[in-house]
Every structure is written in structure tokens, then in C-alpha cells.
Amino acid sequence: MRHFGQVGRVPGDPILGLLDAYRADPNPAKLDLGVGVYKDAEGITPIPQAVKLAEQRLIATELTKSYIGGHGDPLFGEQLLRLVLGEHSPALSEGRAGCTQTPGGTGALRLAGDFIARCLPGRSLWLSDPTWPIHETLFAAARLPVRHYPYVGADNRLDVAGLLATLVEIPPGDVVLLHACCHNPTGFDLSHDDWRQVLEVVRARELLPLFDFAYQGFGDGLEEDAWAVRLFVEALPEVLITSSCSKNFGLYRERTGALIAITADASSLQDVRSQLAALARNLWSTPPSHGAAVVATILADEQLRQLWQQEVAAKRQRIAGLRNGLLEALQPYGLAERFAHIGAQRGMFSYTGLTAAQVRRLRSEDAVYLVESGRANVAGLDAERLDDLARAIARVVS
Ligand code: PMP
């Protein structure tokens, strides 16, 4: 008997397929705006200096490779809670905030999905339309009913009215996933006033907010990007937050992240944490140590922390400079206004508004690779060649 004869083939990740096509392209002027990793001016995804220094320290001092506990490294948890919630968060001082270390933000999302499915049965999870495609598949794998609220429409504009109109119809108790900042894939973020309105509906409808916080520091600043998360945590008794250290610490492959639970009181936190540890045991048993130890070392050391903050600021400023630079380069073609949203968006990604047909032309005629939705990774732009890209865009949109 052949056991695997009936196993069908599923298509690979379309974004990774795009990367294969990019790698195979012999054009020396090719540009990869597809894959969602930060790149510096040399096109490299660098290891931050602060990470290198922390790693040297860890190699010299690490005593054991024995397992860490189910919730991970306690120092990492303590430091990350303060980074996300703020030094003076009442939820922290009241013992209502707990951190469970996970393999990346993806692990945190899966743990959150399993927790909701197991402990809050019958609840649906609401995702923005569009959202990061893994949200769709991951929560389906956790067997959660997934629904959608409008976010960015066909006109490539943020649809706050549509978002609020849908939220007021959501059954009480359902879970709403919100991108804390730097929305992936669109780059469109809510204003402070929009967030306050969302909070009011979430509170009135008794919804549970689940924040996906994957880009802290890539929008307006480490503190600024946490604004919405902290607003909700101060206003509501119960909130879930998934935090990723992949982008802001450059630790992608070290799989470093956490699920943060805010509960109504300290006793409820222990109940929730017991469930999270039990669920994690069946997923990955205990989390990997290295990345979390690096993060804990950096955040607990004043000098390393400052160095890291400077490095995050440099990344943020490079992205902002590229956004503005591309708009300036589009100016001579009379396109600066049409693409003004690129300057207003935040984080690595931009829904450019280019159609799938235009994206295909950019790829075949100019070796510029972006996702067919029109999503571009702004960090992949080459500051020296923005004029070439603007000329190519002007040609495909005319
Ligand atoms: N959420 C969003 C919106 C993301 O874009 C990403 C990374 N692409 C993640 C979560 C998870 O990242 P990781 O698992 O690599 O930490």
C-alpha cells in the first residue's frame, strides 16, 4: 500500500512564489517589493547591533539549555509587558496583565485562536477586510468561525464608517482582531479619534478586542505606536494582545513573540494563564529561548536599550524617507496627489492602489516585484532609483 498516494498538492505561499520569480530574474535592476521583511539601503535585512551585543553577552554567561517554563522567560515577560503597556500601566500594578512567550507573533495568534475556541466557545472572530492572509488560514485552522469588517474599500481608502457600521451589528461577546499599528497589508491606520469611536462600540457591544501588534516602533515611535493598545487596556477590563519581536528586534528566524492577556482581576489572570500554558503544551510544549533572552537582555540594560531604540528609529526614518522620496519622484509626472496616501500610510507596507494588471506590467517590463493586490514593501525601495520607479509607475498608470 502507498500511504501517501492520495495526498494532494496545495499551492505554495503566493508571496514566496513571487520571491522565487524575483531570484530567477536576470535583470540587474530588479527590485523586490514583495516579501515583508525590513531591508536597509544595501537591500539587507540586518541583525541590529544591540542584538549582536546581547548575543555575545549571552554566549559568555548562559549556563544551561534546559527547558524554560511554559510561559517562557520571566524577565522577557516582565520587560515586554512594560514595552507594550507602558511603564506605569495600572493593569501591571494591579496584577491583571500576564505574558506568555510564544514562537513569534504567529505562535501568539495561534495560541489566542486555540484559547478562544476552547474557553470562549461559540464566539466568532472578526478580521479586517483585507488583512494579513495568514490571519485567515490560522484562525480557520484553530476552528474559529471567521467573519470580516470593512477596512479599505475598492477605492483604496480607509472605510471608517463601514468599519463602525459593521461593529455595531456584531453579536455581543464576539472577538475583534485589530491591527495595533502599521496595518498589514494596507498601511492605513486609524486616527486617534477613529480609535476612540471603535473603543466606544467595542465597549457598548461587549466585544473582546484582540490586538495584533507586530510592528511596534515602525509607525510613529515605540511609545506612539502603543497608543491604541494602551487606550483599550486602560478603558476595558479584558484585552488580548499578540506581540512580535520579529521586525523591531530583527529576530525573525528566532521566533520571538508573546500573547499578553489583560483580565478583570488577578485571580482571573491565573485562570486564563493556566489555560494558555495547557494549550501551549500541546502546540510547542515550551517556547524557544534564544530570541527572548536577547530581548530581555536588551530591554533590561540601559545602554543596549538606547542603542536598540536608535536602531528602530533609523529603520522608521528610512521608511518615512522612502515614502516621501517616492512621492517627490512622482511629482514631475503629476502623480503626487493621486499617490498621496503612500505618504500618509504607516509601517512597511503600502496599498499603492496599483491594479493587478499594472503590477504584472511592472514585473514584466521593469522587473519590479510587488504583490498583485498592489501591496508594496516600502522598505524594499532603492533611494537611489526612485526616479526610475516613478517613471515606470507613470507608464503603467497612463
Ligand atoms: N501579524 C502581522 C500583521 C504580521 O505582518 C506578521 C509578520 N509578517 C505577524 C503577525 C507575525 O510575525 P512573526 O510570527 O514572524 O513574529
UniProtKB/TrEMBL annotation:
GO MF annotation: an example: transaminase activity
Presence of keyword Cell wall biogenesis/degradation: no
Record-stated family: Belongs to the class-I pyridoxal-phosphate-dependent aminotransferase family.
Cofactor(s) listed in the protein's UniProt record: pyridoxal 5'-phosphate
Gene3D superfamilies linked to this entry: Aspartate Aminotransferase, domain 1 (3.90.1150.10), Type I PLP-dependent aspartate aminotransferase-like (Major domain) (3.40.640.10)
Domain Aminotransferase class I/classII large: 30-393
Annotated source species: Stutzerimonas nitrititolerans
UniProt-recorded name of the protein: Aspartate/tyrosine/aromatic aminotransferase
The protein's assembly and partners: Homodimer.
UniProt keyword list: Aminotransferase, Pyridoxal phosphate, Transferase
PANTHER family: ASPARTATE AMINOTRANSFERASE, ASPARTATE AMINOTRANSFERASE, MITOCHONDRIAL
Xref: SUPFAM superfamilies: PLP-dependent transferases
InterPro entries reported for this sequence: Aminotransferase_I/II_large (IPR004839), Asp_trans (IPR000796), PyrdxlP-dep_Trfase (IPR015424), PyrdxlP-dep_Trfase_major (IPR015421), PyrdxlP-dep_Trfase_small (IPR015422)
Pfam families membership: Aminotran_1_2 (PF00155)
